[in-house]
Design a protein that fits this description.
Elements (H helix, E strand, L loop, with lengths): L1 E6 L14 H7 L10 E6 L2 E5 L5 H7 L7 E3 L5 H4 L13 E4 L1 H10 L6 E4 L6 E3 L2 E7 L9 E7 L2 E5 L9 H6 L5 E5 L14 H11 L4 E4 L8 H4 L10 E4 L1
Parallel strand pairs: 3-4, 4-5, 5-6, 10-11, 11-12
Antiparallel strand pairs: 1-2, 1-13, 2-3, 7-8, 8-9, 9-10
This protein binds zinc ion (3 copies).
One zinc ion binds next to loops.
Length: about 250
């Protein structure tokens, strides 16, 4: 499988509108500090699936030469994770969408002028798309009601995507996410910045240790990091367009 991190920014993206900090300046210059909102492309030889559809989806699809997608999985009902779905409007109709019932209810309310094909998926129950096995696991990300992370398995490889979450991942989920080949973890800020709804870099690294992840990369990154070239010396930060082949 092939995984492309289309958008590695937090809800505001970087540069942040109206901000002139060194990281946002690097973003304005087109450096790797420039981060669009959340979307992950998962590909196999049978097709392509998006995990989350952030508001920057049109730009991401054009830039990464994505012609069509075979399905969308939504992790939770936050604007920066679903609002870009409307970028499909008039391009691709009746797209298959997957997620917990509560999450789909919420998002369909927003997208009521569109008609995606709905698939309610229960927690911890594997389902197949494009020849890969996906499993949703519960995480904690207040005030989002039923946020999930996503496990992808194929040919003996395992990828865990935490989605937006705090460090207190429920025990049942912890059992499912052990020993990933790759952990893609929410780590919105360095530990010097206080945050409640997400993990900071210390917590994300601690999760990588506890799960025994072979490789870890941080995403959902804010402008509170130093510019990418400096920050990546300290933390395993993702960047837009980063690709993993497993
Ligand atoms: Zn988010
Ligand atoms: Zn800034
Ligand atoms: Zn969120």
């Amino acid at each position: 499988m092939r995984i492309t991190l289309l958008g590695t920014g937090d809800a505001t993206g970087t540069p942040v509108i109206g901000c002139n900090c060194p990281t946002c300046q690097d973003g304005h210059r087109g450096g790797r500090s420039q981060r669009t909102r959340s979307a992950i492309l998962v590909e196999s030889d049978k097709g392509a699936v998006l995990i989350d559809t952030g508001p920057d989806l049109r730009t991401q699809m054009l830039k990464n030469n994505i012609g069509r997608i075979d399905g969308v999985i939504w992790t939770h009902g936050h604007y920066d994770h679903f609002a870009g779905f409307a970028e499909f409007h008039r391009v691709q109709y009746n797209v298959d969408v997957y997620g917990l019932g509560e999450t789909l209810d919420y998002i369909f309310e927003y997208l009521k002028f569109m008609h995606p094909k709905r698939h309610n998926i229960p927690l911890y129950k594997p389902f197949n798309l494009i020849g890969l096995e996906f499993t949703l696991f519960e995480v904690v990300h207040p005030p989002s009601k039923k946020p999930v992370g996503v496990i992808i398995r194929h040919a003996g490889k395992k990828v865990v995507i935490t989605g937006d979450c705090q460090r207190n991942i429920p025990q049942e989920s912890m059992q499912h996410i052990m020993n990933p080949d790759l952990l893609i973890a929410d780590a919105i800020v360095p530990p010097t910045v206080g945050v409640k709804k997400h993990m900071n870099t210390d917590e994300a690294m601690d999760l990588a240790r506890e799960t025994g992840a072979k490789d870890v990369v941080f995403t959902h990154l804010s402008h509170f990091f130093k510019p990418h070239a400096e920050a990546v010396e300290v933390y395993p930060l993702a960047y837009d367009g980063m690709v993993f082949e497993l």
